[in-house]
Each structure stands twice: as C-alpha cells, then as structure tokens.
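[job 4471] stage=fold_predict status=RUNNING
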Amino acid sequence: EYLVLWLDCDREGENICFEVISLCEGIATDNIYRAHFSALTQPEIQGAYQNLRRPDKALAQAVDARQELDLKIGCTFTRLMTRTFLKSATAKFRLKDQTCLSYGPCQTPTLWFCVDRHREIQNFQRQEFFRPKMAVNIEGWPVELSWSKDQTFDSTLVQALEQRCKATRNATFREHRQEKKTIRKPVGLNTVQLLKAASTGLGMSPVQCMKVAEHLYTSGYISYPRTETTRYSDTFDLGAALREQ
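[job 4471] inference complete, writing structure tokens
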C-alpha cells in the first residue's frame, strides 16, 4: 500500500525514484514518499524516516533533459567531426581502425584540460632558487632565522648575504612582532575537491578514489560523496558519526 524510496540524495537518485515508481503498479500517488539522508548513520536514517517527503518530479525531469541534451549534442558533433576531420586525423596521427571522432559535452572539455596540463608539464623549465636561513645562538639557545623575503632566484644576492652573515659575530635584536591567527575548521569536500585531494595527497586515480569513498559511505564513515556542495546537511550529526567509529 505504501512505497518509501531510499535512493541516493541527488538528482540522479531522484530520477531513479520515478523509474522505480513506474515499475510499482497499484500504489496510490499519495502513498509514495521519498527519504532524504546524507549518511548511513542511525540519527540520519531515523531523521529521514521521520521527515519523509514527496518525490520531486522537476529534479527527475532535469536529469532526463540533461541526458537527452548530452545525447543529441554528442551525436550531432560526433557526426560533424567525423565527416570533416576523420580523413585528415587518420593520416596525421596514423590511426588505422578509426571509424569516427567522438564528441561529448563532458569528455571533450575534460580531454582539453588533460592536454593543456600535459603541455604545461612538458614545457616546465626547472629553475634553481634559494631560501637563505641562519643559525644563531642566543644565550645558549640555538635559533634558526629565516630571510624576511623568504626566497630568491638571484644567486649573487644570496652570496652577498652569506658573506655578510659570516663576517658578523654579533646580531642586534631590533623588533618583536606577535600575531594572532585563527585557523578555521575544515569545510566538507565536494566531489571535485575530493578527487583533487586524493590525487595530490595520496596519488589515487579518480576511479580508485570514488571506490574507496563509496565504501566509506556505505560503512557510515563519511557523508554521501557524490555532491556539488561543501556544506553538511542540517540533519547530519558529525559528532555522532565520529562516535560510532
């Protein structure tokens, strides 16, 4: 008599909801509900159950529209590129079995980002730089001092600084500064930032990163990883999620 949909809390999940509804015949529209949750923890699941909503047809249709646009644009430009550039491309790049040149609204811009980044890496020229530091002894306490300008590419300037430091036996304490800094708590990661952090910090591929993220999500360690926002859901109890671990 009732249908409660517990799909992923994003547009694709909303679209799948209506696919499920189309297969479940005989259930009145007023008896169909949608659960919204961002993590598989007890408080989150209970909160979703106590605040059931109606499925959002507009969100589901937005996914249908995007899929249709992707298909039509992809097919149109794939045909145009194939007819226009296939012969010259196969000759230039020595492609033997190439029958078409594919275009996609996502894949083509992404490919350009990869090519552009590859060119930056290939054209990068290493340049030596210097970061002067000096070790001094203040009443028996060793102290390391850093240059106020941090670093330089000028080797002549560094040599001059080195000579002055070696020729100096005593130093004068001229100024004392005290600063108060506030370190803000880290914000949540959206999918793109998660992939960047995993690649830069852990050397993980996007596929490997999302596989691990999905496992952590289903195990209750993190909130839903496929998201475009960095804000936690109002119903997500971060403290409870940490205590459960």
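[job 4471] summary: The first strand starts at residue 3 and ends at 5.
[job 4471] exit 0
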